[in-house]
């Protein structure tokens, strides 16, 4: 996955969209902003939190996915509760550094990006390139043609006799 100069929200949404597309390609039903088993903190304790994606699979436990660029204790707690409810929790973490894996049974997918200050030093812009998405390198314009490779470490004596060096006569 490659992107250039995306805001934090744009990267998060791009990752959610990519995971959702992958899950749908597996034949799973995908629910965005699915209800979590974790209640919200007061004064909203009567409501439930949400996960970025909930995936119902034809066979096997449901999968829940959270996508974050920060290290939030609440995300770990939410995914731990999802695991206790029988779901497979996956935390997609992205950022520049310190993408430590979550505690078991939470699976962590780490995506490293580079970041720089946004226009007027407001916000951050994030980029990521991968080997398969890098542009081709610039070439010198030299014509490339087949040629015989010279053996640099030849062990045979050349056919022509060596020329005498006049300096050897002294």
Description:
The chain is of the alpha/beta class. The protein has a domain at 7-110: Trna Endonuclease, Chain: A, domain 1, CATH 3.40.1350. Helices cover 18% and strands 31% of the residues. It is built from two helices and eight strands, in the order βαβββαββββ. The chain has helices at 8-25, 73-84, and strands spanning 3-6, 29-39, 48-56, 63-68, 88-95, 107-112, 114-117, 124-128. The strands form two sheets. The chain has a five-stranded mixed β-sheet with strand order 2-3-4-5-6. Strand 4 (63-68), helix 2 and strand 5 (88-95) form a beta-alpha-beta unit. The mean pLDDT is 85.
Summary of the model, kept short:
18% of the residues lie in helices and 31% in strands. With 170 residues, the protein is α/β, with parallel strands linked by helices.
Structural features:
5-stranded mixed β-sheet; 2 helices; single chain; Trna Endonuclease, Chain: A, domain 1; 170 residues
Task: Note the run of SSEs as H and E.
Answer: EHEEEHEEEE
Number of helices: 2
| CATH architecture assignment name of the domain at 7-110 | 3-Layer(aba) Sandwich
Number of strands: 8
Percentage of residues assigned to helices = 10-25%
Distance N to C terminus: 72 Å
Low-confidence stretches: none
Main structural class:
alpha/beta
SSE arrangement:
Layout lengths: L2 E4 L1 H18 L3 E11 L8 E9 L6 E6 L4 H12 L3 E8 L11 E6 L1 E4 L6 E5 L42
Parallel strand pairs: 4-5, 5-6
Antiparallel strand pairs: 1-8, 2-3, 3-4, 7-8
């Amino acid at each position: 996955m490659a992107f250039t100069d995306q805001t934090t929200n744009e990267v998060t949404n791009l990752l959610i969209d990519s995971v959702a597309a992958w899950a749908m390609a597996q034949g799973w039903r995908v629910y965005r902003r699915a209800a979590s088993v974790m209640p919200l903190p007061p004064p909203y304790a009567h409501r439930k939190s949400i996960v970025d994606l909930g995936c119902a699979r034809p066979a096997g436990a449901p999968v829940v996915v959270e996508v974050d660029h920060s290290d939030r204790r609440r995300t770990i707690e939410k995914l731990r509760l999802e695991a206790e409810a029988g779901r497979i929790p996956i935390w997609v973490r992205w950022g520049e550094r310190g993408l430590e894996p979550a505690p078991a049974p939470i699976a962590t997918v780490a995506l490293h990006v580079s970041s720089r200050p946004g226009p007027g030093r407001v916000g951050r812009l994030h980029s990521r390139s991968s080997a398969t998405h890098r542009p081709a390198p610039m070439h010198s314009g030299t014509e490339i043609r087949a040629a015989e490779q010279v053996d640099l470490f030849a062990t045979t004596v050349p056919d022509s006799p060596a020329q005498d060096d006049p300096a050897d006569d002294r």
